[in-house]
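Appendix B, example 12.
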Amino acid sequence: MIGSGPNGLAGAVALARAGLAVEVHEAEPTIGGGMRTEELTLPGFRHDVCSAIHPLARWSPVLRGLELDWIEPPAPLAHPLDDGTAVTLERSVAETAAQLGADGAAYARLIGPLARGLSALEQRPLAGLLLLRGLPAGLAAARALAERRFGGERARALFAGSSAHSMLPLETRPTAGFGLALSVLGHVVGWPFPRGGSRAIADALAAQLLELGGEIRTSSPVDELPQVEIVLADVSPRELLRLGRFPPAYERAVRRYRHGPGAFKLDWALSGPIPWTAAACRRAATVHLGGTLAEIAAWERERAGSPFVLLAQQSLFDDARAPAGGHTAWAYCHVPTRSAEDMTAAIEAQVERFAPGFGDLILGRHALGPARMEAHNRNLVGGDLNGGAMDLPQLLFRPVRRPVPYRTPRRGVYLCSASTPPGGGVHGLCGAIAARIALRDLG
């Protein structure tokens, strides 16, 4: 096994559970890939290095059995507006709809059946047919869907913020699918996070693997494909080509794989909680800072105006994140791939817009741009958090158009990173599916 991100560890656990001798090699001194928690600013302030909020992990059938202390804030998400109020995604569809005025009924019609279908899916597989009703909307562009379904800015802004997690222009298909999926997950499982940081997910997976007899070797970079029966590679497509030779047609196809924009991330050590103008923002660990649909769309399309900022404030609900009286905050915005621009001032100005006095609380900050992200983790090519652009051409067929994209032309070698279906996010599905295919091939 190459790599110890969520997919690598999930794949390793699946192989070990089948009785194979499994060895995981991780180049970094610690495991986790995007699931790392470190003191990035000041002693005692614990920050998630990459992933921070985990609705997919909470829902994932692969990670569901992990022994984790999940923290679920009262509201999964808050989206403040310039009038001093905020619209929140509540666990209840009805409570969310009640904030949207005339758009409340449209929101309930769009999201309600999908939430009911996902909730019932585990007990009644046929309930999944309800989810198919959302397929046409999910394949749409988020801006067009929001403007067609909603007449008011509150509903449009709430949907735009969730859709922008796609890291695609909101005029692009299928950005609406990201907004729908994250909204539905918020209603069904919330937008929780593990106490102490995302590293807890990696530790729980590692504990499962070790209990099954697997081994983990850190500070153990791999420079060529091992000569063993099964190799699961939790790596980017171009990193796979660095590790071994493949048929020319496959290599050409892999080199055509497109990565999405990068991210510029900030972590802060704070002397107190963020002073939001809208009190509702204090009920959520995740806050979307972008204002209106038009503003968010302009930033995601052409980086015009103020950045759309995705912010997490876990220390409001998790006292393991900071010393007594202190707080942490985590935020990032999307930038062009490999951008060298320092977005610190622009991000902090966007926070200040909705929380005047925020800057006075900063005790320390840590910045991480696209180049440093890739240097820290080769899977984050150009700072791309999703393992490749997740537009329609690459959503299902990634990284190449093959019936089974996890299986490479080299016997026993499988790709299982976020560059395979279903793509980015902490869910472990890419690794688990690749392992299942490898075991079937092994017979």
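Residues 253 and 349 are 42 Å apart (CA to CA). The first helix runs from residue 6 to 17.
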